[in-house]
């Protein structure tokens, strides 16, 4: 592993007005890793994701990207530094075609790589190639998720942030999407930070994982370690009993 | 029908009608039934119960007819509007659009030389084209970027006053003033843009509405600068690149060896606004294919996704406001030179509403839709000029009906800004006829 982590979140506290969503969260993502953050609904997973992207900004604590403090940078600037995000709920541009969605994704990247990146995205999700002139809103849920990831990849990121890519998808599609994420990591060495409720798939895929409860990290370890722990099995894998 | 089960019982209909009559009485009884008349020494109430009762009767009667017919149709009964009309009309228009657009353009170019064209038709066409241009300008803000702007007329006013003041005080020519008017309007677009950047939807609409009114009120009250309610008169007419449209030596007719006609200036104005409108259209079409235009559309679709993809939504919004405002400013300069007189009267909220109606009615983001809606609305106003009292009623009704049948506007389909040209298989019979090579 390199000297300093690619993404280092330290003691971050984020508020929505007077409500505290994150209570001193620290975690690291190293170059070439897949790191997952699991937790129940409302634990603050997406808030952490959005705090990394600078909207909302952390009230205290720091977010370091590649050694640089990006805590107070505006979102669009952070997105120009090699971080790309596939937001929660996919948020694809419904009335625009698949191709147009991808082009907007590429707007922070150097245009000379566009064809190459497009080939790569289509190779990863061949379904998108067939549907490239179709409007985003007419795609199925799984295809929309593929489009959201492909759109983020068009920015040529070093760090890919994925917020609940399995949300509302059929098990078979989830498997396919997670397979693609693993493939990206293995083949291109892409660093991935994955926020998930689907703990089983996420922990199986990830090198390391963190567990968040009520805005705090309560556990961390390698994916296999966490999967083997009784608390995790009880809380997140067996019907969600507390 | 009698054999089918009706949805409403006679009792519920009677209760409904009782409520209707009570409401109608409450409204019309006060508003129509009691009329104030000015008499020496003050106001006097004059009861007009007959008219009020007639209105109540009309409301109750109308509702009774609807309750017994349209609203009382059994479940599953076929719709009153044939399916073909409901679905076919829009797609037919957009399909015809491909041929329709160029045909319309050729017609617009030839119009001044057609035998039936007279002064009245030309004036009306200039008016329609002005609204086409304004509609296209507003379409950038509302249709592409999805920012609801209810104060677009402010930029029209800025353009008009810019030209008028520069021409009157400094004697600048129209061609010099035109870009200046556009730049000033774009500048005001940015001024408006900054405070409203954080606002969305309804809140944005209210602020832009207020902005439109502020500009008008300032124009009305800044007497020494804008002439206040008196307006500005004697605004110079445009020349044909320096040649005046005047009678006699050195005039347009003289220079080109034509017989003098007052129509020359009108025809020139017609081509001027046609060129300006086409410029607006051309720039919009080009911008849609560029990253900035795509960013506008993405902003309309999902602002959060835009930010997560690294788009600076601040500058995306500002460029949309500024570009839309610039074309409003161009149109304003044209308006000033055409009228020769401007006053705040011409820049009321109803203008903003009319332009917005053109954009919404045409189908947000559709260029050809704006043309159709402008011709229908502005042309329609003229056609129904005879029925002065009822024309707003007719238009209100027409718009309600269109919004019921085509809720996304006349042209609802959005043409992609980029698509793969796939070679279509050409059948042998077509090749034999000389096609498909």
Protein architecture, described:
Chain A is an alpha/beta fold and about 240 residues long. Chain A has one domain (about 5-235): Rossmann fold, CATH 3.40.50.300. Helices cover about 35% and strands about 25% of the residues of chain A. In chain A, the strands form 2 sheets. Chain A has a 6-stranded mixed beta sheet, with helices on both faces. Chain A has a 4-stranded antiparallel beta sheet with strand order 2-1-4-5, with helices on one face. In chain A, strand 7, helix 7 and strand 8 form a beta-alpha-beta unit. The longest helix of chain A has 18 residues, at about 170-190. The model of chain A has no long low-confidence stretch (mean pLDDT about 90). Chain B is mainly alpha-helical and about 425 residues long. Chain B has 2 domains: about 10-70; about 100-405, no CATH class. Helices cover about 65% and strands about 5% of the residues of chain B. In chain B, helix 4 (about 120-145) packs antiparallel against helix 13, helix 5 (about 155-170) packs antiparallel against helix 6 and helix 10 (about 265-290) runs antiparallel to helix 13. Chain B starts with 9 loop residues before the first helix and ends in a 5-residue tail after the last helix. Classes of the chains: A alpha/beta (about 240), B mainly alpha (about 425). The interface of A and B includes residues 53, 75, 80, 94 and 132 of A.
């Amino acid at each position: 592993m390199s000297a300093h982590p690619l993404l280092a979140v330290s003691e971050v506290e984020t508020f929505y007005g007077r409500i505290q969503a994150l209570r001193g969260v620290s975690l690291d993502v190293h170059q070439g890793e897949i790191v997952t953050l699991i937790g129940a609904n409302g634990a603050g997973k997406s808030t952490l994701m959005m705090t990394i992207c600078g909207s909302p900004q952390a009230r205290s604590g720091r977010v370091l990207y590649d050694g640089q403090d990006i805590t107070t940078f505006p979102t669009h600037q952070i997105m120009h530094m090699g971080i790309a995000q596939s937001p929660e709920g996919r948020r694809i541009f419904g009335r625009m075609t698949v191709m147009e969605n991808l082009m907007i994704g590429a707007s922070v990247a150097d245009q000379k790589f566009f064809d190459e990146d497009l080939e790569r995205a289509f190779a990863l999700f061949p379904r998108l190639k067939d549907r490239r002139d179709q409007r985003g809103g007419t795609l199925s849920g799984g295809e929309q998720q593929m489009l959201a990831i492909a759109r983020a990849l068009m920015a040529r990121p070093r760090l890919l942030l994925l917020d609940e890519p399995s949300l509302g998808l059929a098990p078979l599609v989830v498997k396919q999407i997670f397979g693609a994420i693993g493939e990206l990591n293995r083949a291109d060495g892409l660093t991935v930070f994955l926020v998930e409720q689907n703990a089983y798939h996420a922990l199986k895929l990830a090198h390391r994982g963190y567990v968040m409860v009520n805005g705090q990290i309560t556990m961390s370890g390698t994916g296999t370690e966490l999967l083997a722990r009784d608390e995790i099995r009880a809380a997140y894998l067996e019907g969600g009993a507390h | 029908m009698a054999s089918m089960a009706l949805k409403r019982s006679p009792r519920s209909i009677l209760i409904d009608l009782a409520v209707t009559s009570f409401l109608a009485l409450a409204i019309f009884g006060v508003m129509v039934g009691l009329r104030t008349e000015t008499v020496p020494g003050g106001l006097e109430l004059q009861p007009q119960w007959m008219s009020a009762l007639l209105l109540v009767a009309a409301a109750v009667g109308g509702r009774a007819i609807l309750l017994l017919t349209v609203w009382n149709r059994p479940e599953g009964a076929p719709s009153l509007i044939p399916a073909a009309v409901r679905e076919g009309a829009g797609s037919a228009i957009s399909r015809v659009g491909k041929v329709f657009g160029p045909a319309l353009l050729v017609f617009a170019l030839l119009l001044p030389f057609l035998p039936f064209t007279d002064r009245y038709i030309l004036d009306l066409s200039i008016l329609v084209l002005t609204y086409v241009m304004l509609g296209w300008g507003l379409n950038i803000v509302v249709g592409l970027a999805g920012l609801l702007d209810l104060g677009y007329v402010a930029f029209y006013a800025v353009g008009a006053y810019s030209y008028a003041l520069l021409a009157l005080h400094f004697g600048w020519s129209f061609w010099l003033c035109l870009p200046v008017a556009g730049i000033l309007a774009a500048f005001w677009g940015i001024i408006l843009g900054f405070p409203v950047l954080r606002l969305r939807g309804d809140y944005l609409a209210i602020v832009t509405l207020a902005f439109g009114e502020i500009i008008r009120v300032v124009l009305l009250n800044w007497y020494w600068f804008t002439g206040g309610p008196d307006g500005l008169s004697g605004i110079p007419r445009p020349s044909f690149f320096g040649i005046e449209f005047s009678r006699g030596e050195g005039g347009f007719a003289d220079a080109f060896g034509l017989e003098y006609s007052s129509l020359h200036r009108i025809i020139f104005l017609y081509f001027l606004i046609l060129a300006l409108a086409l410029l607006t259209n051309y720039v919009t079409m080009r911008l849609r294919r560029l990253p900035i235009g795509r960013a506008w559309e993405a902003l309309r679709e999902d602002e959060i996704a835009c930010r997560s993809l690294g788009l600076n939504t601040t500058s995306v919004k500002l460029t949309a406001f500024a570009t839309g405002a610039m074309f409003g400013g161009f149109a304003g300069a044209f308006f000033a030179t055409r009228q020769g007189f401007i006053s705040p009267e011409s820049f009321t909220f109803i203008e903003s509403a009319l332009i917005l109606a053109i954009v919404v009615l045409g189908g947000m983001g559709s260029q050809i839709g704006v043309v159709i809606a402008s011709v229908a609305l502005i042309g329609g106003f003229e056609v129904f000029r005879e029925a002065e009292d009822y024309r707003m009623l007719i238009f209100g009704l027409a718009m309600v009906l269109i919004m019921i049948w085509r809720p996304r506007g006349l042209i609802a389909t959005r043409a992609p800004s980029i698509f793969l040209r796939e070679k279509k298989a050409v059948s042998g019979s077509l090749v034999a006829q000389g096609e498909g090579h």
